[in-house]
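User: Quick one: structure for sequence A, then sequence B.

Assistant: Sequence A:
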Amino acid sequence: MHDGWRIAALILSTAGYVLAFILIPRIILERRQPAATVAWVLSIALLPVVGVPLYFLVGGRRIRRHIRAKIGAVGYLESSVENRVRPEELPSPVSATCGRVLTAAGAPPPVTGNRVTVIEGGVAAYSAALGLIEEARDHIHAQFFILDVDIIGKRFIHALASRARAGVRVRLLLDAVGSWRALRQIVQPLRKAGGEVAEFLPALPLHRKWSAHLRNHRKLLIADGRKCFTGGMNIGNRYMSPRNEPGLWRDSAVLIQGTGVRDLQALFLDDWAFATEETGAEGDLFPDLSFPAGGETRGGLLQVVASGPDRTMRPIYQGVFTAFTLARRRIWIATPYFVPDDAISTCLENAALRGVDVRLLVPEKSDLKTVWLAGRSYFDDLMMAGVKIHLYLPTNLHSKVLIIDDDVGVVGSSNVDIRSFFLNFELGVFLYGRKEIEALAAGFTADLSRSDELDPSAFGRRPRIVRLLEDTSRIFSPLF
């Protein structure tokens, strides 16, 4: 019996090393980010029995052939032509250059004619999201990474079901991994009411389109094609609540009314078509979005930017990198997960050395410990260059907000990390209006008052074992 186990182990080990020998050249030829290539090569070479199956599960790029073919499948992406603004017409050199890069990278051009309300905190978000559902008269399109199985998740489903029973066309798209419990436990009332529920990229190879690794991290709630709630918030007790309860995460979002909703609607319909193969969605999907005479026809300058495996380039990354490079006064970053690539890290260090006020706001404690450790491995070099790092104290910080000078503000689903920039399906709203940027800055300043600035000398005295854990997490973070 023992000899049989030893023979099986030997065969398994030998097969692992043979596959590792075959896979390593393939991984190198895939031209991933250097950090990701090193992480995969190390994991496969050092522990092939684990690394090889893991690569086939989450590292392969087979699914990308299907995904690359999806964009524009429903023909809506050029539908928003009203109030378009040429990037060079944006109000500053920084915003003009950023808009030009985003457009060249594949994002729709900027639009004006929007009312944008910055939503700070889960109580305001709860009111905005549930209010938007109640307002809908023709259709509701909802898309989230996580729908939690808790009282808020159930209220959300019942609110959608109520509108479906009233004759409103309801479509709910959930990520198959982030919302796997909800898809099996709480969406049935919506289906019974006549609503449609779909899952994006199932994780198991029982489907033609599946992936355990490439996740749809976008958050969208659109009512009648006229108003949209979007940002970093998922649906659940952690993110939003009717009361300001202990433990409610700090998060941000925006409520948009106007021509920018067309681009957000087009993005949802493209994701819906990919998940369901329904290319002729019904409803008054693109209504007239012009404001009445004397209304806000030139306000709310913004640009809707989607990024992910379905894009040849990485528009959000390109836009963020451009804005960081052009900053002259400030770069303020709030992100729950901070694992930048070398280019973004160097860009921030360089900006601080140039005298730009670079501030990074992250949670003191995180729900993802490995990512938290990996992010801390960057702190020494950043602080040495002059970057100020603030740890948010009251609860977990989940806001994803960027403020560059008085010229560019970003709210969306993307973290400042490798996964968001290079793997996930993400959504960012780039704001170019002074009023909206000031609102983001006011929220950021309020968060700083509830944070502690990290002391470089004290942080540098942390134990060697902690440094080792941080650096190890940093090496292997591109895998996850």
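Sequence B:
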Amino acid sequence: MALARLELRKALTDWGLSVLEDSAVLILSELLTNATLHAKVTPEQTIETRYFRSSGALRIEVHDGSEERPQPRTPDAEAPDGRGLLLVDALADEWGVVDRTGPGKIVWASLSLPVVRPGGRGRS
């Protein structure tokens, strides 16, 4: 998981999107944790991360071999888990789940890119 976060940080720096780092890394961590806890992982079905920049958004994807769809839960005050997708929902502009070629699914989240104002100054 640490390597995936490091690679995302590097990509964000290369793309000039360090302003999104805190939210993006937390979203990636939560999606990876969810996949690690709930996905079926075999040597043939690993968890993969992908992230890319489009014209208006940063998209973060976690691919896994499980057909089971993640569902946000109401956190239990007694349980330490159950808050991951609530955090993703709060931080991301949108998120969802799609089927992938072969077994499994892709859980994705997107963050809007900062608006660049004339003169090169952006706002987050």
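Residues 6 and 25 are 9 Å apart (CA to CA). The longest strand covers residues 57-64.

User: Thanks, that's what I needed.
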